[in-house]
Amino acid sequence: MAVLREVLIFNLKCFRGVRSYFCPSPVFQCSSLSLNNASSNVRNLDFEQSDTKKISKAMKSYMERAKVHDNFIKDQLHQYNLGKRHLANMMGKDPEFFTQKDVDEAIRYLFPSGLFDPRARPMMKHPDEIYPKRKAAEFDMNGRPFHSLFYTSKPNYYNLMHDLAVKFKELDRHEDRMISRGIRDQKPSELFLFGSDWIPKEKIESVLLEILTDAQYSNLIKTLERFTQHPYAIKEKNFVMQFRHQLAAQTEIQQVPELMKDESNRPYTTFSARRKKSTATVKVIGQGTGLLSINGKDIHYFERKQHKEQVIFPLEFCNVLGKVDVVATCEGNGFSGKVGAIRLGIAMCLRSFVDAETTERMRLAGLLSFDPRKRERKKPGQAGARKKFTWKKR
Amino acid sequence: MSLSVLLRTLPTLNAINSQMSSLSLLSRQPYSMYKPFVKEPIYNIDKLDKFIESGEAKKCEFVPVKAARNDHNVSVFHDELTNKFINMVMEKGHKELARNLVEAGYMKIKQLQLAKYYKATTDIERAEIELNPITIFHKALDNCKPILQLTPIKRGGSTYQVPIPITENRARFLAMKWIILESREKDRKIHFPEKFALELIDAYNNTGKVVKRKQDLHKQCENNRAYAHYRWG
C-alpha cells in the first residue's frame, strides 16, 4: 500500500533542472507528432564497458540520474503490482485478472473519503500515469548534442515552428506554380476546421515534453491560424488536424428527456433549474390551456412587469403560449433569481414539446444556457466588490 | 497630454496595445463568468431568422451561447433602445419606477398624437401623423444625436477646444442624457412623463430644446474649426 499516497509526495526535485536534457531522437521526425516515444527510445548506452575517461561530465551526470530514475520507476512498478495483488486478495478476486478499474473500485470501497476534490482522494495508479514522461539523453558520449536546436533549450518546440515555416514556403511555391498555370484567386477552404478547436497548451506540452510559456503557446497558435488561412492550406490538412480536437455539438450535449404521461393521459416533463441562489422545479404539461401556477399563485406571484415577461419569454418564443400548462415551485433569494430559474426550467422542459430546429433556435437565443453570473464578493480593503473607500492622503 | 492623445500620436504604442489584446484573448478575461469564446445570445426573432438564413448559425453549432439576460424578451412592446433609455432614467436601481415613468411618457405621446389625429380632417393629414411612440422615440433620438464634440487639448501651454468626431455610442449617450436633463427641468406641477412626451414630440419634429442644444454644440465646433488640426500631432 506504500504506493498509495506516498508515491505522490515524492516529487521531481532532483530531476527538475535537467528535464529538457532527456530527449529521444527528435520528436517531430518527418514532421509528424509521434506520441509515447519518450523514455522508450533511450539510446542504448553501455554504461559499464565504455571508457569512463571519454565520457563527458554532462553524460556522466545524466547517466547517474537516468539510473536513479529507472530504479525508482522499477521500484514503484513493483510496489504497484504488489499492492494490486493485495487489493485483489482483500476483495476476494483473482489477482491475475485484477484491472485498474477494479483497483479504483477497491480503493473507493476500502478508503472511503469525503474530500471534495477527486484528486485529493486516495488513489492507486500505474506509475506511468503518475510520473510525467521524461526526455532521454539529447547528447552523445562526448556531450555533443544530437539536435541542431539543442541550445534553444526547447528543441521540439522550435523544430515544430521551423516545420511550420518550411511548410508555409512549400505552400507559397505551390501557389506560385498554380498562378503560372493560370489558376488565380483560390479561396482558402476553412471547412475542414469546422467543429474543431486548437488543442490546449497542456496537451501540446505533454507531446513536446517541454514546458511552454503562454507567449510561446500563443505564438504557435497564431502561426497555425495564419497557416490555415493560406489558400492551399487544405493540402496540409493532416498536419493541421494533429493540433486540433473535435468539439462536441452543443445540442448533442443536452439530451432531450422523453415525455411522460400523467393520470389524465396528458404529456408532461419536469426540470429543476437554478439561477443566482434560487432553485425552481418546473413541470410543463401539454394539451393545456395556458394555466400558470407559481408557488400556488398565478403569474401575479411576480409583481414586476419585467419578471412577468421573463416567465412568458420561452413560451412566447416557441409559440406555445396558451397551449401548455406550467406548474412551478421556486425558492431561494430574490425574485430576479427565482424568475431566472423558472425561465430556464420552462425552456428546458419545452425541448420535449418542440422540434430540434426550435431547440437550436432556443439555444442561440440563450434560453437553454445556465446563467453562471453570481453576486461578486466584497473585497477586503474596499467598500464593496468594486467600490473603493474615499481616498484621503492623511 | 492625455493617454488617448498619446495613443493616437504613437502608432507603435497602438500596435503594442492591439498585440496585447490579442494575447489576452487566449487567457480568460478577468471578472467575466463566461469563457471569452462564448457567444452573445440573439433573442430577437427577426435577427435570429436573418442569422440562420445567412448560414452563420451553422458555424455556431459548436459554440456555447451566453444566457439571455433578465431584460431580454420577445414581447411586441420590447425595444432595445427603450431598455437602454430606461436604464439611464433609473436611479439607485429603481428600475420598475423608471420603466413606469418612460411608459407613462409613451402613453402621453399616444394621447397627444391621437388627439391630433382625430382633429385632422383629411386622410392625407392623418397619414402624416405618427402614432407609434416607439417610432417617435427612435426618430427623436436620431434628431438629437450630435456628430461632433469639443475636447480640450493642450498645445503650447494653452488649452484649445478642439472639435472631434464622436462614436455612435457616445452620440447616443449624449442624446439620451440631454433628453433626460431637459425632461427633468420643469415646474413642480408638471411631472417627468409629461415633459418627456413633449420633449420627444418636439425633437421628432426637429425643434425643441434638445435639438437646439445639439445645434449649439455644432455651432461651437464650427467656430473652433481652426483648431481642428490639433487633433493630430
UniProtKB/TrEMBL annotation, chain A:
Gene Ontology molecular function terms on file: RNA binding; structural constituent of ribosome
Entry-linked Gene3D superfamilies: 3.30.230.10
One GO cellular component term noted in the UniProt record for this chain: mitochondrial small ribosomal subunit
InterPro entries: Ribosomal_Su5_D2-typ_SF, Ribosomal_uS9, Ribsml_uS5_D2-typ_fold_subgr
Keyword Mitochondrion: yes
Superkingdom of the source species: Eukaryota
Protein name listed in UniProt: Small ribosomal subunit protein uS9m
Natural source organism: Daphnia galeata
Residue segments, region Disordered: 375-394
One of the GO BP terms on file: translation
Coiled coil: none
Stated family: Belongs to the universal ribosomal protein uS9 family.
Localization annotation: Mitochondrion
Pfam families assigned to the protein according to its UniProt record, in alphabetical order: Ribosomal_S9
Alphabetical UniProt keywords: Mitochondrion, Ribonucleoprotein, Ribosomal protein, Transit peptide
From TrEMBL, chain B:
A single GO BP: translation
Domain Small ribosomal subunit protein uS7: 73-225
Gene3D superfamilies reported in the protein's UniProt record: Ribosomal protein S7 domain
Pfam families per UniProt: Ribosomal_S7 (PF00177)
UniProt keyword Lipid metabolism, yes or no: no
Location (main, coarse): mitochondrion
Protein name as catalogued: Small ribosomal subunit protein uS7m
Family per similarity comment: Belongs to the universal ribosomal protein uS7 family.
One Gene Ontology CC term in the entry: mitochondrial inner membrane
InterPro entries, A to Z: Ribosomal_uS7, Ribosomal_uS7_dom, Ribosomal_uS7_dom_sf
Localisation per UniProt entry: Mitochondrion
Keyword Ribosomal protein recorded: yes
Organism of origin: Daphnia galeata
Keyword terms of this UniProt record: Mitochondrion, Ribonucleoprotein, Ribosomal protein, Transit peptide
